Prior knowledge:
Blueprint: H1 20-29, H2 40-50, E1 57-64, E2 68-75, H3 81-93, H4 103-110, E3 116-119, H5 122-130, E4 134-138, E5 144-147, H6 177-187, E6 193-200, E7 206-213, H7 219-230, H8 240-247, E8 259-261, H9 264-272, E9 276-280, E10 286-289, H10 293-296, H11 307-337, H12 344-353, H13 361-381, H14 384-405, H15 410-423, H16 429-449, H17 451-467, E11 469-470, E12 473-474, H18 477-480
Antiparallel strand pairs: 1-2, 2-4, 3-5, 4-5, 6-7, 7-9, 8-10, 9-10, 11-12
Helix pairs in contact: 1-2, 6-9, 11-15, 11-16, 13-14, 13-15, 13-16, 16-17
Amino acid sequence: MRKFRIFRKRIKPTGTHQNGNQVQRESAENPQAQQLYPDLLQNEVRLRLLYDNCSDVVYRSFLVGGRTNVLLMYIEGLADSEAIERHVITPFMQEAAGDNDDIRQLIERKVSAIQAKEFTTFAKCIEYLSNGYTILLSDNYTSGFGFGLTKWEKRSIEEPSAEVGIRGPREGFTETLRTNTSQIRRIIKSPLLKMESTRIGEYTQTNIVLAYIEGLVDKTLVEEVRNRLMRIRIDGILESGYIEEMIEDHPYSPFPQLLSTERPDVVSGSLLEGRVAILTEGTPFALVAPITFFSLIQSHEDYYQRSLISTIIRWLRYFFIATSLLLPSVYVAVLTFHQEMVPGSLLVSMASSREQVPFPALIEALMMEVTFEALREAGVRLPKQVGAAVSIVGALVIGQAAVQAGLVSAPMVIVVAITGISSFMIPRYIAGISIRLLRFPLIFLAGSLGLVGVVMGIIAIVLHMCSLRSFGVPYLSEVSTPKLNEWKDVLVRAPWWKMNTRPRLTGTYDKYRQPSGQKPDPARGNSE
Length: 528
């Protein structure tokens, strides 16, 4: 990188600033409340004080037309130094002496940057500089200019690793906010797609985008989401999980009240249903609200396969979710309190396998469940090359060794293995964690009260879910209504020609998605 000489002068005390040290103290305490000074050197001193010990901030001072001092600032790694040299420095230094020295006219005539924004405060100067803009300040001018010559390393668009599908788009969100918004805009091309931007975080100043489709979404829902975002007061936002915990309705519930996804098609489909999406800079995970419990156990691929296949897979998913939640607790309850429910031959086989086990069924189940969860987490955290091998081999070796040592019985290993496999049927990782968490209190209730305890636990879970709200929408709203029309995307996945209405969420909304009477019928021909 070329090195440039920086021109420095000593600022003389004026009537407004009698003490230079006092000016610096005021700058450090409240820099964003200050307007830019007409004196370029005062602006430079203030900015150098703010960015003291910041080695990545580059300053370049030079003359325009042989007599006008200007200061160029940018952050190395966020701005494109080659574009700055080509579009800003070279045109300005080629300005002949005696030409028009009005800086605004020079920028309009000389600079070919895509984005050029004018500002008058240090707050905007800091904001533009932090976002990769190149800042230009001129002597005897109370305005500055920011040029959108940004360039930084970013990850390319890839398929989401946590939401893999056989059929459907292969693109996923990245950590770059505008890349994510452009993917949604490419799917929904209507100008009614609105994207409101704001910043949250005292130090990070993280860009947040609230996306919705005007006319499809209830206005009160948009206003509620906007108000909750505006109420957040925090030093920094590093991931969308920060926002999720700050705006959800029931923070102590094990069930999530917002849907997190990496897929643009999932977000676009939710927007078309009248929901809102929250996109956060620096993370590929977008938030969707409001949701219900069934939103968490529906896969994006349900809507790309044929309706009959999707319905069968959805019922299979419901069965294995119940298996993942209840199988260990029912096994413990039957072995501890209800042996008469087991057929005689099976009971003899189970009793012989437990003959050498020194622990009751409750302790045995807890030991195996905790071990399985530890192996699962180890497989996730380890590198991909060894993670899967460690989890599979570890489960086989530990299970076989535990059975041979007489610490656990073989049927318990089978039950825990079936439970673990069943939990992988849940398409949303956060929903799977909730089911895995609730499995442990059900095991305790089964070991203490038998099947009565299991039923009591199920009733408590259902009552808790009935009390949950996601931005005013009941968590079990689809199955709580007697209208079978609302069940067409819950218990089954109706064909697209039957999906005439949108789900009812909150307030007023555009109910109809498409006209009725579109069932395929070759006899109709082209008469319509």
